[in-house]
Each structure stands twice: as structure tokens, then as C-alpha cells.
Amino acid sequence: MFLLILSVLILTICSVTYFYLDTRFTSYLYNNLYGGDLVRLELAKQTFKLAKDSLFLGLGPGQTIINIGVNPHNIFLEIMAEYGVFFLMGVLLIYIKILMMYNSINEPFISSLILSFSISFLFLTVSSSSLTRIYPVWIVFGLLFSIGNIYSFKKKVNNQKKK
């Protein structure tokens, strides 16, 4: 469990560090727009247009960077543009399920781990790095989902035994 918390912490630090070192985004910012909010709004518009042009079925992995020139700075828009709206709904459903597990797990360590990851994940969703290609995020995402399901299953079994 310690390694899981450590990996979430390292992942968060690496993503934030990459955000400040992303030179392509910095050059785009200085050459095209002069405000961070305006840049993100323009990137969101361009990414949404890419998703719409693909009929929300997805362009394929890495295509947003090829078409826009930089990362969209929003993981949800990036997933929608690259993998489609159905894949995005799946990711959102898993994330919501992980959040719902926070309340249902009586183990304080596991529930705090789920809460810390959920908060970290929200901050990572607007980083400049392409989160879809940072595999440790998705490994931790899957591990927390699995751990939560194991604890939920144990809770159901214990409740059935009591009856």
C-alpha cells in the first residue's frame, strides 16, 4: 500500500514538473496568445472541433498533437478527440465508480488512498502533458478500481454471512 501511495505522489510530481518544462506549449503561448486562459480556451475549441470532425468516434492515439501542435491540456477532451465519446464515457464511469467506492470502504487507509488519487487525477487532467501516454496513471487508476472492487466484494460477502 505504501508503494501505491508513493507511486501516486511521484506521478503527480512528475506531471506537474513536465507541465513547467513543456517548451512547445511555452513557444505556442508566446507566439500566438498572451494569456493562459485564452490559450486553454482556444485549445479546447480546436480539440472539440477535431472530435466533432471525427463524428465523436475518435481520430486515433496521438492525433490531437499532430493536428493542433500541442497537447489539449484537458484529458477529457483529449480522450474524446483521440478515442471517441464512448471510450470517454467508460473512463468517466470508472472514475465515478472509484469516487463512489470512497464512501463505501470502511478501511481508512484504502479510502484515503482513493480520495488522494481522485483529487490528484483532477489536477492532472488539466496539465500540459499528454496524460493518456503516461502509463503509471492508468496503472494506478486500474489498481484503485480493482482494490475498491475487492473491498466491495468482501463487504457483500460479510453482509451475506451475517444474514
Automatic annotation (TrEMBL):
<feature type="transmembrane region" description="Helical">
    <location>
        <begin position="108"/>
        <end position="128"/>
    </location>
</feature>
<dbReference type="InterPro" id="IPR007016">
    <property type="entry name" value="O-antigen_ligase-rel_domated"/>
</dbReference>
<dbReference type="GO" id="GO:0016020">
    <property type="term" value="C:membrane"/>
</dbReference>
<feature type="transmembrane region" description="Helical">
    <location>
        <begin position="75"/>
        <end position="96"/>
    </location>
</feature>
<feature type="transmembrane region" description="Helical">
    <location>
        <begin position="134"/>
        <end position="153"/>
    </location>
</feature>
<keyword id="KW-0812">Transmembrane</keyword>
<feature type="domain" description="O-antigen ligase-related">
    <location>
        <begin position="4"/>
        <end position="89"/>
    </location>
</feature>
<keyword id="KW-0472">Membrane</keyword>
<protein>
    <recommendedName>
        <fullName>O-antigen ligase-related domain-containing protein</fullName>
    </recommendedName>
</protein>
<keyword id="KW-1133">Transmembrane helix</keyword>
<dbReference type="Pfam" id="PF04932">
    <property type="entry name" value="Wzy_C"/>
</dbReference>
